[in-house]
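Here is a tokenized protein:
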Amino acid sequence: MTSSHRHINPWIIALTVMIATFMEVLDTSVANVALPHIAGNLSATVEETTWVLTSYLVANAVVLPLGGYFSSLIGRKRFYLTCVTVFTLASFLCGIAPSLGWLIFFRVLQGLGGGGLQPISQAILVETFPAEKRGAAMAVYGMGVVLAPIIGPVLGGWITDNFSWHWIFLINIPVGFLSFFLTSALVQDPPTFHRISLKEGARFDYLGIGVITLGLASLEIVLDEGQRKDWFSSGFIVFFAITAVVALVYAVYHELKKERPIVDLRLMKDRTFAVSILMLFVLGFVLYGSLALLPIFLQTMLGYTALLSGWVLSPGGLAVMLMMPVVAMLLKKTDTRWLIGVGFFFCGLGLIQMAGFNLQVDFQTAMWSRVVQSLGFAFLFIPINVSAFQHIPHEKTAYAAGLMNLVRNIGGSTGIAIATTLLSRRSQFHQSNLVGHLTPGDPAYQGFLDRATQLGVLRGGLPPTDAGHLAQGAAYGTVVKQASMMAFADTFWFMGMLCFALFPLIFLMRRSRATGPVAVE
């Protein structure tokens, strides 16, 4: 371990930084189920309250890649403590917000404070642990990052049902105080850490920060609001899409010219890091995409309650907790590339199993499919992160961590956006195909109408005409439900195939283990 932490058990530092990371990632999903309650309490529509989620994600995305730059200006520990303070204070303000406008404003502050916690936590872990223990450290960090979005909706629903929506924000306050106290007492900047001074010629890059902020904020708005506003048929979405493309393209050009860039894109020259970035994007895509779809499927198609659908997801979280320490031990003896391959296999297999669901699927089948997919997450998160950091210089760890967390979060937003869009479009496609069979000349359709009409007359005591109308309505309702079921299957299948499509990229990565890099050119 580094000399700055020689007198402190590194596992205490790992738990310290995980507290804030877990709290921050939890807040990306904990408010989802509370939106109807927030809307009712603050006299707003549910659609208006979705900005409670969007504003947080936008602010989060803006700060994620900037952590390394601000750390180098004011010091890593000081920047981390500033983020914890802003996040905790903003959580308190969210909890007492008197109106929707103020709540959205405070959520922006909360996202700005929380955005720096993930990458700096990861950078602290990488520098605190030696290479041979880095896999175990990433297991601790991974539990927070992967488990939090799984637990978030269940915890948010329980708090909202038993107390009020205010408490989903107020519970952050004691956790924030604990994180601040422990970080102040235990965490130090490593001796290799070099702060840059504005006097050194590293002028504060207002233009760079401005275009990155504009580009990432616009991109996040497009991804989060696109489906609700029917994508490019909306002038609102077109405007922000053009803004995102122009700003981000210019940001890349601007940053590559800078000697001391805000976002160090030169790290992508290392092919292992570049492939790891792509894999983290897909990991975020399938994690958040499936997490958005599965509860909707369980509740709308199978009639599960929010709590029961939460129980379907919970064993997957337990599987992640149990397997991450095992994966950390395997890293010492196994090439990370094979573990990543196993991870994408299990993740894809679980999603293909979900693609085989029907309207009669039982609780255990749904639960075990989620467990299989979650095993994949356990095998993916740690090896990808360990591989990514193998060839990154110590002074660049915060920059690398910021870029990695940004890409994973954008992958999550993209996953939710594409999954919900695919679900809607494929449902329309299947419905138009199935409706073509609802013709008087179709024997199956006519047989259904005859049986349903007779049932309405004999058991319901309805006149034949009314019974016939109800039979037609029942037939159309069955078509809509079957079309939705087929759309869910298509979307799960697409995400599963995406996992399998990444297998060839494994061979572009350098061979490495957690004991240190073993480069093969």
About this structure: The first strand starts at residue 512 and ends at 513. Strands lie at 512-513, 516-517. Residues 272 and 508 are 7 Å apart (CA to CA). The chain has four domains: 1-199, 206-257, 270-423+491-521, 429-486.
